[in-house]
Amino acid sequence: MTALPSVEKAEELLPREPRTPLSVYRTFVLPAEEAALNLAKHQNAQTRVIQARVIGYLLLYPPSPQARMMLAREISSCSGWEAVYDLGAKYIRHFIILFRKSRGKTPVPSSHPSRPSFAHDVRERLQDLQRAPLDHSSAKVSALARDNYRCMVTGRVDTPSYLSGLTSLSPGEIGGYSNCCHIFPDSLANIVPGAAGPKEQDAVTVWTILKRFGYEDICEELGFASTSANLHRLENIMTLDVIVHEQFDRMNLWFKAIDGQDNTYKVVLAPAVGGLARLVAIPEQVTFVAHRPELPLPSPKYLRIHAACCQIAHLSGAAEHLDVIFRDMEELKVLAQDGSSADVLTYALHHRWAAPV
């Protein structure tokens, strides 16, 4: 967790014209952080500090200029610090947490059918590759072909694909197990048509935030929480080694675009998992290449939103906060009588809708 920068430092990040973002940062955000810090041992003090910092860092490092202006207007309408904290809570629950997926304690590779049936299934599907696969299985097959049956980050050969004869090992290459990784989670399509329950409301809230942030095109591409939602389009899919996938889903690994170089990214690791680079041979920089030109690569725009949420989560302390909550959701049997488990209950109820499709 990192304290919000001073107004002088913020001036280097916030545009001078219009001055609304800098003004609300000075008038609302920094005082809200200070007020939360002064709560001392208050039960919710730490949570409120995180909420204020989420708002501050979202203002400083937004996924888009329109997101910054929209957030500045929301902050300026707050009537008191509690409203600022509530706004921070909203963005944690409906935006930041979108990319924090829980997959249990051990990474599990996407399952493959038996060797002969898998190879037959793949070859059959490769005869009619779709630009927008309709399900997880089709997306994995198409992404594997696009990515040359290798992890897009480590370059490790997908072992089931090798055993099925779909690819070969060059000298020095090693195998591994890869997963079909969604940038925007496929749980956004996990809604009942015509229903208006909590999971539908949560999904619609996510899409609404994206639209207000200037991403109407993403809402259209991914389905805007409708019966035609297509989270399996290849622009939303990556082939990743199971360990890389796990860290990507835990918001500990993200991709920062390098200016002037198409589909080239700096691979950013959170400080807590920095040693993973040596253990799994994660490079500092990657360039994504479509080995089948007709199949689109992951969208830079999708990756930019994921990267912004990861950066904000770690700077604000929300990442560690969510780690504790997700751990407690798995381990706690009974809620604490003093109310200290309130966050766990809130996120557990909210997270019900995000179960895998």
List the helices and strands and how they pair.
Layout lengths: L6 H5 L8 H18 L7 H16 L4 H12 L4 H14 L20 H12 L9 H11 L10 E2 H5 L11 E2 L1 E5 L15 H15 L3 H7 L14 E5 H8 L3 E5 L6 E6 L6 H5 L4 E3 L12 H17 L1 H14 L10 H10 L6
Parallel strand pairs: 1-2
Antiparallel strand pairs: 3-4, 5-6, 6-7
Pfam families: HNH_2
InterPro entries: HNH_nuc
Organism: Trametes coccinea (strain BRFM310) (Pycnoporus coccineus)
Q: Any idea what the radius of gyration is?
A: 21 Å
Q: End-to-end span in angstroms?
A: 33 Å
Total tally of structural domains = 2
Derived from helix and strand composition plus strand pairing, the structural class reads: mainly alpha
**Shape by Cα distribution:** elongated
Sheet with the most strands? 3 strands, antiparallel
**Strand order across the biggest sheet?**
5-6-7
Beta percentage is 5-15%
Order of helices and strands: HHHHHHHEHEEHHEHEEHEHHH
Mean pLDDT rating = 82
Secondary structure tally: strands: 7
Low-pLDDT parts are: 333-342, 352-357
Number of helices: 15
Helicity range: 40-55%
User: Oligomer, anyone?
Assistant: single chain
